[in-house]
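Dear Dr. K.,

Following up on our conversation at the group meeting, I've run the structure prediction for Helix-turn-helix domain-containing protein from Aureimonas flava. I'm pasting the input sequence below exactly as I used it, so you can double-check it against your construct before we proceed with anything downstream. Let me know if the numbering doesn't match what you have in your notebook.
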Amino acid sequence: MWMRSLLEADASAVPAGAKCVGCRLALYMHADKESAYPSHAELGRAVGLSGRMVQTHIATLEAQRWLEVKHVRNRGNTYLLRYWWAE
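The predicted structure tokens came back this morning:
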């Protein structure tokens, strides 16, 4: 449901690259916790983008409340899907 909602989002609000990164992140999610922690480089390889472009798209998704990113020093990021329409 999350991926479908993201893909149906207005293209002017959520660029195609952000949708691609978001969907790939959703595929990494653990079913029981709905969290994932791939690196930017790993995501970039999976979707054919640079790590920097992945960072940009993740920032877009976070700003628009599609993702919650928990930054943990020296451990990497944890990504959580946000179902903002159900909040």
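Two things stood out to me. The chain has one domain: 2-86. Helices lie at 2-8, 16-28, 40-47, 51-63.

Best regards,
J.T.
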